[in-house]
Amino acid sequence: MSNPGLPDSTGLPDLNELATQLSPNALVTDTDVIAAHSSDRALFSPVESALALVRATCVEDVQATVRFAAKHAIPIIPSGARTGLSGGINALDGCILLNVAKMNRILEVNTLDGTVTVEPGVINLDLKNHLADFNLSYPPDPGSVAISTIGGNAATNAGGMCCVKYGVTRDFVRSLKVVTADGEVTTVGRNTAKGVAGFDLAQLFIGSEGTLGVIVEVTLRTVPKLADPLTSVALFSDPVHAARTVTDYLGKGATPSLLEYMDGGTIEAVNAYQNFGLPSGAGAMLIVQSDGSGSMTRAQEDLELFQQVAQDNGATDVMYSDDPRDSESLVAARRAVAPANEKLAHSRGGGELVDDVCVPRGRLAEFFERQAQIAQKFPDILVIACGHAGDGNMHPNVIFDAGDPVSIQHAKEAFGMIMQAGLDLGGTITGEHGVGVLKAEWLARELSPSAQKMHVAIKQALDPQGIFSPGKMLSHLK
Amino acid sequence: MSNPGLPDSTGLPDLNELATQLSPNALVTDTDVIAAHSSDRALFSPVESALALVRATCVEDVQATVRFAAKHAIPIIPSGARTGLSGGINALDGCILLNVAKMNRILEVNTLDGTVTVEPGVINLDLKNHLADFNLSYPPDPGSVAISTIGGNAATNAGGMCCVKYGVTRDFVRSLKVVTADGEVTTVGRNTAKGVAGFDLAQLFIGSEGTLGVIVEVTLRTVPKLADPLTSVALFSDPVHAARTVTDYLGKGATPSLLEYMDGGTIEAVNAYQNFGLPSGAGAMLIVQSDGSGSMTRAQEDLELFQQVAQDNGATDVMYSDDPRDSESLVAARRAVAPANEKLAHSRGGGELVDDVCVPRGRLAEFFERQAQIAQKFPDILVIACGHAGDGNMHPNVIFDAGDPVSIQHAKEAFGMIMQAGLDLGGTITGEHGVGVLKAEWLARELSPSAQKMHVAIKQALDPQGIFSPGKMLSHLK
């Protein structure tokens, strides 16, 4: 999609004009600081040269920045903690980076309604810890839980390990305060448990990756404090048996609060990184937890069922623990996949691409077969996977030699073939990491021409100048 | 909002042209049949004279009708079982009524993924019954559960009694097949548990009340078959003590699967209608159920907590039953409020307006105080309420003499004052019944100018000719 409203810059706008409208020190023109704020954690996503960085400390800073950008037809890229994996907040030439990480106050915990209102820069884990004092939980737990912000989580509809039972960010947002393309601030969504007054614009903004406006406040519903879960682990000779276990188990009406997958290569990578007590030599592993919705009996039944189903599906070993330390260690092992793979990549030339496809859970076995074929086709690179098995959401990691053009080429091909496998199996190119720059071309393959047209029309309707995050998620849609 | 694309009809379009493109007998021009399809169940909502009725039996019928309407700039009003309460599907002069109630096949139950795909005309209760054979449940249960369609439920984001634990229709829709304003058919949403590829257009269509397109297929997620609940009832001398019980109970981390409210006047109306064993003379009643997420122990704990909290809040009587027949009878009593109020209205001049505001649950007590003030202001009419207390979603019924202009005027005033109370308390004018014609003017009061602008822009973007349901939900937005 083109940005018809953005003329070529023929002269630089006067940043002093902007500075006078902002909080002291909010405007940053130091090129080193700008560079440090110019990218997220994605590979193969271009980083260009921003005109300026605004570190907003209040809604008025955001409004002033948007109005300035609109007046001068300058692209504006909202960002938070920059922990994304798709290049969605990477700088464009001449853009303003609008960072809201400093807007990080928890504004209100409403215990009567079980809601919490925060500024966008609040770190997810900080919110969780804060809510614990009120006996409340906010379930969404992306891998970046300790470092990513609630605003970023909402802008990308972040997921995590809890989703198999509790859902994603979208399921917890009651309302958003947003700054729109004309610099107005408005509330979308509602502060009640139910409501059908008009379009659900909050749902439209969630997952829109900064292309429709800037999120400056989020009201979330919470749930009563989650009970400590019980944990079980099953090992398999190969991924397909693990996949069948997932389908059978959930098909029997189980409601696990976590159902994670690691393949043999991932287990090896984690073992090489740190000793979490994981066995070696398995072809695949499932970690399951149940909190029994507060009933320990129900949690035990959930895990007994899991063990039975895993054994019926040829599990080579099934372990069970009601020691919370063991549970924590197993989940820590799953969370360690990211640094473990980084270390592995480092030893093999430094290249790593993290994919994120989601297929209907009934087609996981086929997906694993496709993954094996892709790995076989490129023996010079590694394709290993972990993921949120209960949701069919897989993260194949492509590990390659970043110094070898052939290896890079193979990695890119494998990355694409993984997404194609996802689409072929009725799934999506991204379950939770988002589109950004990395998958913008692929979004155009996933969406029908008619759905693309709707995206373009809505973008044009809400941001006619095209100032918000051009060249990103929507850039290949027609 | 005006409909710039719709010129005044200077001549009638040739319906034969449309007939040749439709399934046999799909086009209906018989004025009696058209009249029978021209309205839902709302009062005070104008019903005009439709040009024709199309009873679609397939997606192609819908596409042909939309294309014909677009070509001739004729308004088109999609409908299902016409059980709405806001006039959203009432005929406009010269419109085509596009009814999809005959598209009522259950297309696929996918037990591997726990999803079900249906045509829009499938009745909610029929779907529930069908899923029971697969040990699956589809929770949303609007009052119209036995007569309303899944397509209509999606178009209006229907709620019900389950929502306090399980959420509304929106929370169960994976994807929709829709026919857009250009007659194209496309899928919005996704068939996976998670997905973030682009805007969530399915969420935009849900609750859009036929203003953006026609829903021709719905894929829903299901949950494992819900366990039979236990039931408890508490009586109070007045509504405010009931409200405090709701807030305290939920604040203690309870997760009831139903938490319903009836005030004294409503209990009397139900008792006059049929004997469900409800006591008389109470000022307010709460019915609570817990399914314990499958754990009977947990369900019992939930209800014991309820009884304790109710007593602490001055309940005059608390009853408990683990006999499923008692539970069914109590819920049947709650479901009988609609016909009971109809009967009551009949005895008082026939007028009845059902309101549907939702406030933050922490403000229910204040809402009841406002309701009492409104009732006091108009002693010639009745204002009695029931509702989904756990969600703060109240249905005050205004009962009046439809033959007395003063009574009608008072009823309308009271109806508006109830909505104003909802807005004043941080709530919404409609929790689940929708906007339609009845509350279109009020939608403009609820939404900020900026949010209105977004609605108008999106409508214009997706339906530039304004053919879908003009004069309804969006008609007062600027």
From TrEMBL, chains A, B:
Its cofactor is FAD. It holds the Pfam family FAD-oxidase_C. GO terms for molecular function: D-lactate dehydrogenase (cytochrome) activity; FAD binding. Keywords: FAD, Flavoprotein, Oxidoreductase. It is an enzyme of class 1 (oxidoreductase). It comes from the Bacteria. Residues 46-225 form the FAD-binding PCMH-type domain. InterPro entries: FAD-bd_oxidored_4_C, FAD-bd_PCMH, FAD-bd_PCMH-like_sf, FAD-bd_PCMH_sub2, FAD-linked_Oxase-like_C, FAD-linked_OxidoTrans_Type4, Oxid_FAD_bind_N, Vanillyl_alc_oxidase_C-sub2. Its EC number is 1.1.2.4. PANTHER family: GLYCOLATE OXIDASE SUBUNIT GLCD (PTHR42934). This is Putative glycolate oxidase, subunit GlcD. The lineage of its organism: Bacteria, Bacillati, Actinomycetota, Actinomycetes, Micrococcales.
